[in-house]
Design goal:
By secondary structure, the protein is an alpha/beta fold. The chain contains 16 helices and 5 strands. Strand 3, helix 6 and strand 4 form a beta-alpha-beta unit. Its EC number is 2.7.7.7.
């Protein structure tokens, strides 16, 4: 796990430096709240932190990852490192009580006991109160690590008794991989660019809708660049029927903006695209348009987004946008 420690340090330098300094000075807090978006390595950091407390071949503060202690922690079978996961939709009081019971059996012999609460924001009120009592009055030296994407759902009294470490958002490549794992490979590059911690679940629920919207964008830009009179029919019969309200239309404009960004990217030889399966079409379009023409189109889409915020009629806004894109204004 030594390599993993250094990988985590590259990905989360602030968090890892703070933990390293605390370990070096023997000043670890008795409780931490690790806060970060889906895809951030909160659980991985919690495990290597636990390893750093038990590793028999420690290199400074870095656990070896190879000794028996490290391997047991990595595989979830170390007697003094326990993980609590939601039981169904929530973490229940009996799970916390079972943790306390297991720790009480070993309290006289263990140098330290570590417990990691995954998705801590899903604790029921009674479970949260039990954790709070455990934080305030442990029977032996303990290290509590609570992992969450939503600190606003954790008791303020728990937060006040813990040190909060905020994880940096995951990289674009990490977000893409996360969406691919969730079965949205075709649109994962788009979802990753659209996502934020509050919209991720909504975007996954909307994946079929986004697939259709993506197809509409590809159709629309081709008709725009060919100056086809069909474009207004596509707008009226398909685009406005799909992107119905202002929030959906804003999302549609984002999809359109990503297309022209991709067009500019392939012109510069870049391969990190929101529409990677459309690279041939993008290259053909990029050959026909100058860099300034593509930049102008992006500016027109951004201006349409600003007009949308000003509550301009959606149909008029889109007709104006398509006209200006076709005329190159």
């Amino acid at each position: 796990m030594k390599i993993m420690w250094h990988q985590l340090k590259e990905e989360q330098p602030v968090v890892m430096r703070m933990l390293e300094k605390s370990i070096e000075k023997n000043r670890l807090a008795h409780a931490y709240v690790f806060e970060g978006e889906a895809g951030t390595p909160k659980k991985e950091v919690a495990l290597v932190l636990a390893q750093s407390q038990f590793c028999s071949e420690l290199n400074g503060v870095v656990p070896c990852g190879m000794c028996a202690e490290c391997r047991r922690i990595e595989h979830g079978n170390h007697p003094d490192v326990l993980m609590i996961d939601p039981d169904g939709a929530t973490i229940k009081k009996h799970q916390v009580e079972e943790l306390q019971k297991q720790f009480s059996y070993k309290s006289m012999e263990a140098r330290l006991q570590v417990y990691i609460v995954n998705e801590a924001d899903k604790m029921t009120a009674s479970a949260a109160n039990s954790i709070l009592k455990f934080l305030e009055d442990p029977e032996s030296p303990t290290l509590a690590i609570l992992l969450t994407e939503n600190t606003q759902f954790i008791l303020e009294t728990i937060l006040s008794r813990s040190q909060k470490l905020s994880f940096s958002p995951p990289s674009l490549s990490t977000r893409i991989a996360l969406y691919e794992e969730k079965g949205t490979k075709e649109i994962a590059p788009l979802l990753a660019r659209l996502s934020n911690p509050f919209r991720e679940k909504d975007l996954l629920d909307m994946s079929d809708w986004i697939v259709q919207g993506r197809s509409l964008v590809i159709q629309l830009v081709q008709e725009v660049e060919k100056k086809s009179p069909q474009v207004l029919f596509t707008l009226q019969e398909k685009w406005l029927a799909h992107f119905k309200d202002r929030e959906e239309l804003e999302l549609g404009l984002d999809l359109l903006l990503f297309w022209y960004r991709d067009c500019l990217a392939v012109k510069h030889g870049q391969a990190d695209l929101a529409y990677p399966d459309q690279e041939t079409l993008l290259k053909n379009m990029a050959l026909q348009l100058s860099e300034s023409a593509i930049a102008m189109r992006m500016q027109q889409v951004l201006e349409a987004k600003r007009w949308l915020l000003a509550h301009v009629n959606s149909q008029l806004l889109m007709e104006r946008l398509l006209l200006r894109l076709q005329e190159g204004l």
